[in-house]
Amino acid sequence: MNEPDAREVLSWRYEAPFDFYNAKDDELETDLQVLLSPMNNYMSVYNVDGSLVGYYCFGADAQVPGGDYSDEALDIGCSARPDLLDTGLGASFIAMAIDLLWLFFPGEKTVRTTVAAFNDRAMHVCESAGFVKTQDFTHQNGVEFTVWVKEI
């Protein structure tokens, strides 16, 4: 992910209950550094006209504090631009993430993702893509999450 894309992602504003994902103004510079750090494996996703439509994150930064990540797996996180939520692109977005795994992380056998429990759409996409729910937990901020795993 490059800096212009990171700044655009941080400007995205989601409606409730997805506003949980909105960047906080007083944390923008810290969040910018997280998105740009090569260790965090953030990748921009563009559509055919070159517009930024979302991003992926591969590795530890896709984990949510409070979950049990002791089993070996590659964690993935992703998000789409707010105007693209609930448009039916979720399955394609997940399929492309799996394709990228094969390309950038050869040899990985298990993929894991963590989803906010209120995000019924994302959980449905995970289930449809063959992920299996393995745990529920509550983050220290009170938001409940579910962890999903898929053998690839």
Explain what you see.
The longest helix has 15 residues, at 90-104. This protein has a six-stranded mixed beta sheet, sandwiched between helices. The protein has four helices and six strands, in the order ααβββαβαββ. With 152 residues, it is an alpha+beta fold. The radius of gyration is 15 Å and the shape is globular. The relative contact order is 0.15. Strand 1 and strand 2 form a beta hairpin. The protein has helices spanning 3-11, 28-36, 90-104, 120-128, and strands at residues 42-46, 52-58, 74-80, 110-116, 132-138, 144-151. The protein has one domain (39-151): Gcn5-related N-acetyltransferase (GNAT) (Aminopeptidase). Helix 1 crosses helix 2.
CATH C-level category: Alpha Beta
The string of secondary-structure elements, in order, is HHEEEHEHEE
Percent helix among the residues? 25-40%
CATH superfamily: Gcn5-related N-acetyltransferase (GNAT)
CATH topology, anyone? Aminopeptidase
Which range does the strand content fall in? 25-35%
Average pLDDT for all residues: 94
Spatial strand arrangement across the major sheet: 1-2-3-4-6-5
Segments where pLDDT lies below 50 for 5+ residues?
none
Could you give the count of β-strands?
Answer: 6
- N-C termini distance: 25 Å
Judging from the principal axes of the Cα atoms, what is the shape? globular
User: What's the architecture in CATH terms?
Assistant: 3-Layer(aba) Sandwich
**Compute the gyration radius: what is it?**
15 Å
Structural class per helix/strand content? alpha+beta
